[in-house]
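stage 2 :: seqdesign
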């Protein structure tokens, strides 16, 4: 977490954007891997913030992770 805090804010935003573009533009397992890496990062941040979140925030995090993982699985199996 200290490493991420020391990085420029634009670098983290660019990494998320690149993973999202790879997941949406790519095909097959490459796209699925990009989306799954993004889902893991989002899940890790959700885990770290879980105690400070209200129930609505927790539901939002779970829904976002579910949708992102669903897109990754659909990309992996060629359904989307």
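stage 2 :: out
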């Amino acid at each position: 977490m200290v490493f991420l805090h020391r990085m420029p804010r634009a670098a983290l935003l660019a990494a998320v954007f690149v993973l999202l573009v790879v997941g949406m533009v790519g095909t097959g397992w490459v796209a699925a891997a990009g989306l799954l890496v993004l889902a893991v990062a989002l899940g890790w941040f959700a885990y770290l913030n879980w105690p400070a979140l209200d129930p609505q925030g927790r539901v939002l995090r779970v829904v976002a992770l579910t949708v992102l993982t669903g897109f990754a699985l659909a990309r992996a199996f060629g359904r989307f």
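stage 3 :: structure notes
- DSSP finds four helices and no strands in the chain.
- Helices lie at 2-6, 9-25, 28-49, 55-76.
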